Amino acid sequence: MKIKKLPTDNPSNFYLEQEETKEHLLSWIKENLVERGGSWRGSYELKEIYGSMTGKYVSNGTMKEAMRLSGFKVQDEIELKNWGFKINKNSPAIQRFYKSRS
């Protein structure tokens, strides 16, 4: 059976990923991102940070659904391309990613 490819921004992409990828992404979110007291960060930015830190690619849509499943509130689910999530600037991923850029 051939799996129909979805646009990269579609949250349903998450369910097309291998179990290992889904588990790794959800675990990474839990260990590296903190919601409380944060500012809005886009799903595309977060998927880029994940890829940079892990060497693994996920689509924007996959990141969107993984963030929602991890309990992060979506700023605007009607937005088709980039979803915003409140992420604390002291989250381990944010600290490491931007420290390596300076």
Name the features:
102 residues, mainly alpha, two-stranded antiparallel sheet, 2 strands, globular
Task: Tell me about this structure.
With 102 residues, this protein is mainly alpha-helical. It has a domain at 35-101. 45% of the residues lie in helices and 8% in strands. It contains four helices and two strands; from the N terminus they run H-E-H-H-E-H. The chain has helices spanning 19-32, 43-54, 60-69, 92-101, and strands at residues 39-42, 84-87. The N and C termini lie far apart (47 Å).
Task: Please render the helix and strand layout as text.
Layout: H1 19-32, E1 39-42, H2 43-54, H3 60-69, E2 84-87, H4 92-101
Antiparallel strand pairs: 1-2
Helix pairs in contact: 1-3, 2-3
Summarize the structure.
The chain is mainly α. The protein has helices at residues 19-32, 43-54, 60-69, 92-101; strands spanning 39-42, 84-87. Strands 1-2 form a two-stranded antiparallel sheet.
The value of Rg in angstroms is 13 Å
Order of helices and strands: HEHHEH
What oligomerization state is this entry in? single chain
* Estimated helix fraction: 40-55%
Strand segment tally: 2
Content of β-strand: 5-15%
Mean pLDDT: 91
Structural class: mainly alpha
How do the strands of the widest beta sheet line up side by side? Answer: 1-2
